[in-house]
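Weekly modeling sync, notes
Attendees: S.R. (lead), two postdocs, one rotation student

Agenda item 3: backlog of single-chain predictions. S.R. asked that every request posted to the team notebook include the full sequence so nobody has to chase files. The rotation student volunteered to paste the first one in as an example of the format we agreed on. Action items at the bottom.

Example entry:
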Amino acid sequence: MFKRLNKKNAGKDRAVEKSGLTKSLDENVKLFQEVLKDDETLVIRRLNNKYLKSARFALIYFEGMIKPDIINENIIRPLIQQNLKEEILENNLVEELRQKIIAASDVFETRDIYQVCGALAYGDTVLIVDGFDSVLVINSKGWHTRGIEEPLSEKIVRGPREGFNESIMMNLSLIRRKIKNPGLKIQFREIGVQTRTKVCICYLEGTACEKIVEELRHRLDKIDIDGILDSGYIQELIRDEPFSPFDTIGITERPDIAAAKLLEGRIALLVDGSPFALTLPFLFIEYFQTNEDYYNNYFFGSVNRLLRVAAGLLSIAVPAIYVALVTFHQEMIPTPLLLSISAARQGVPFPTIVEALLMLTVFELLREAGTRIPTTVGQAVSIVGALVLGQAAVDARFVSAPIVIIAAFTGITALLSIKSQGAAIFFRLVFLFLGSMIGVFGIIFSFLGLIIHLMSLRSFGVPYMLNISSLKGQDVKDTAIRAPWWHMRLRPPLIAAKNMERQKKAN
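Predicted structure, as returned to the notebook:
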């Protein structure tokens, strides 16, 4: 990875490449001052051992990125006060310091200036020793991170309250606490020419499909971008079907969900600086699954999941069905209801399709405003805005009362499957336009097109609608319903291809 970065920076840092590290302490210090110039957080501390005057050192680190106690107690104090003898200097002082003097959890020797600069930016300390053309990189990270909290985007009633934060090492520790298995493999990449962001691949060896793991490595290695600031960058760069509104890579802020996916044979991708882990392959049914389904009684979990599936379909189709019935198929509406709708539309100047588009747009505006406005006033603005605007629009005869009900019902059902919101908005408009042009036939054609599109999707080679269309009882036990644990003996096919058995069959 560093070789690749060297090539990309060749035009910018030719002077550094030509000079490199030397055996002179002063020249090496000057080199780092040149490479890291105009950075006022850079600290260079020169030291001498009180017993061996010829042993000269220099410490380099960035203020605010390190833990001062580690520097003072584990590096500076031993270097100054330890009794270094002449024979140590004559042998390999750098190796002696690494093995016997520096009291830090991680110390390694390197001559790669780019690796050194990357370590400095990540909170490590560099020790330069006079007379040697290699340096020691010492783990001294001390920057602050957000505490472990319950994720705001995935709140639950029952289950663990832990959530990922922006520290990749902290996130890995949360996963390791749940899967205490030496088969849990963790592999790092650095992506981003400028940011050099750490990205971690996690999977269970012997359970995950090796072909999918290899395909993920291949796609990550092909990424060539200046910076990665969130896992969303990678999600977009490595996904299948980039022009589809449906996600083919899942996201989660919860360690228990990530661990559950790993146990099923999936792969988790963590990005330093992002609390959202990516999970793959991702299937369509996962939009409607929550971790709470597996913590509660399976009857209750199944009912809730069926509600979410029904709500997802209704959020797409309800506005189109209303417009199609009112515009083309009045005979299908009960007479009292038709008369009520007709009376409510008296004086409204716009056709039904325009009413629907206006109200759906207003609802999306209110939803976005409630999301972006500070939490203290967000809910108040959303509720008051919906009540005031809806009532005022009806009183002013801009829209009819039934369309306000339809828009509100659509918005509520959409919130039950919030992760599919982008795709739902797109297909809601498709259904609405076709339903307004050719009635129920347009809705049927739209639904057929949606099914064909979903059937054509793949997530890392795995069919997007895996198990949903299966006729095997074992395959559908964790789709629209959640079967009891003693019936879900097998993992999903094609995903956990190497180890399908989740639990032994009861005698």
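Discussion: group reviewed the output briefly. Residues 1-18 have pLDDT under 50 and may be disordered.
Action items: rotation student to repeat for the remaining queue; S.R. to check formatting next week.
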